[in-house]
Design a protein that fits this description.
With 403 residues, the protein is an alpha+beta fold. The chain is built from eight helices and 24 strands. The two termini are 35 Å apart.
């Protein structure tokens, strides 16, 4: 008699001898029978989320797996694209900066004021007074460089511009040219007075925009390299994104960029206006002008963080795989909208070749589908099979046996 039969006989005996426990004994018998049932193959190869459990048998020259560990290639078409990220800022913005010590005579605007092109902003006077009457040549050659404006243009470069009134410059030049050196030496006091008068400079707006960061006031003495104010035209916006230099052949001026902004539901459109390679560090700068329409005017503002994509090339073919097929990669970054990586995302995958041997192949993860919880990947040929088993590196090159 088997152990199982003896157990049942013993429980019947207890049941006959102890009537009050009859119901409990039947329950125990049922549980015992269930526990003795063998586990089905499907249950043995499945986890809580219905993904195969890795139970391959690995020998010296082969790996034995089940059919559930094999995934056929299912071609899927997709459009290649690049992720762009940046911060919204005005295309036209300029910082007015003193090139040498100045005294602010008048402040003609207020902070956050919108001004038109040519509007007087400030009047200032140079603090430096020439002590040498024959310091003539330096004065004449440097007068146009004593006040600079540092501008952030669309290409991010700094430029210098003279904002002195032409009439003042002409007057000063005439004073110098109409008097000889002897007259300047004998009349140094008069020359100094004329110079002080000509040093009064009016700063005007180079373009229409909003006054920002106005931090000076009348009578204030300021040092060289001090920023007087910032002027920004917030009606024309753009953002600048960085890409690896390898993407230079995939992006060009005129391409359309679709993007979203933080805390905004609507989608916006931009256009690549400039692509610039830089050396320190080696990378690609992509300038994207915002398409000016009602949606962008009402919702976008400077300093907003934006994320977008630009399509390139022809339609390509990838395949869909579950998460268990991907190794050596952090997938959390694409499990949130827009479900595509901002930069190229590389993972490893096990491939069964036509010779039935395993290879560990790098692939690119293109997109995540939150509905199916599957991933679109690119980089494998359609004549291969994907192995879903989580194998050690030593499995590379071994022959696959399916049982």
């Amino acid at each position: 008699m088997t152990f199982f039969m003896r157990s049942l006989h013993y429980m019947r005996f207890i049941c006959l001898q102890t009537a009050p426990l009859k119901k409990s004994v039947y329950i125990l018998s049922a549980l015992f029978l269930i526990a003795c049932q063998p586990t089905s193959p499907t249950e043995a190869l499945s986890s809580d989320n219905n993904e195969p459990v890795d139970i391959p048998l690995i020998s010296t020259d082969s790996v034995t797996i089940t059919p559930d560990h094999i995934l056929s290639i299912k071609p899927t078409r997709y459009q290649p694209s690049l992720g762009l990220q940046g911060r919204i800022e005005p295309i036209k913005q300029i910082n007015l900066m003193a090139a040498q010590p100045l005294t602010v005579e008048q402040v003609l605007v207020s902070d956050n004021q919108w001004v038109k092109k040519g509007t007087p902003l400030l009047t200032v006077r140079r603090q430096e007074i020439l002590n040498k009457a024959i310091g003539f040549d330096d004065t004449e050659t440097n007068i146009e460089a004593e006040l600079n404006t540092t501008a952030s243009n669309a290409d991010g470069a700094s430029t210098s511009d003279n904002t002195s009134q032409p009439s003042v410059l002409n007057k000063k030049t005439n004073v110098i040219n109409d008097n000889n050196r002897a007259e300047l030496t004998s009349n140094s006091k008069d020359r100094t007075t004329a110079k002080q008068s000509s040093d009064l400079i009016t700063l005007r707006a180079r373009f229409s925009g909003r006054v920002e960061n106005l931090s000076v006031q009348a009578g204030q003495k300021i040092e060289a390299q001090t920023v007087l104010l910032k002027l920004s035209d917030e009606t024309e916006l753009h953002f600048i994104s960085t890409l690896p230099i390898e993407a230079e052949s995939q992006i060009s001026v005129g391409q359309t960029v679709n993007f979203t902004a933080e805390d905004r539901v609507d989608k916006f459109t931009g256009q690549v206006s400039k692509v610039q390679a830089v050396k320190q560090p080696i990378q690609l700068l992509v300038y994207v002008n915002v398409i000016n329409n009602e949606v962008s005017r009402n919702q976008l503002a400077p300093d907003m963080q934006v994320t977008g994509r630009v399509d390139y090339g022809q339609i390509e073919v990838g395949t869909i795989v579950p998460k268990i097929a991907l190794h050596n990669v952090d997938l959390t970054q694409i499990q949130v909208p827009p479900y595509k990586p901002l930069r190229s995302l590389t993972a490893n995958i096990w491939i069964i070749g036509q010779d039935q041997r395993l290879t560990r192949q790098p692939i690119e993860v293109i997109e995540y589908d939150p509905l199916t919880k599957q991933y679109l990947i690119a980089g494998i040929s359609s004549d291969s099979l994907i192995c879903l088993a989580n194998l050690p590196i030593e499995s590379k090159g071994k022959k696959v046996v399916v049982s």
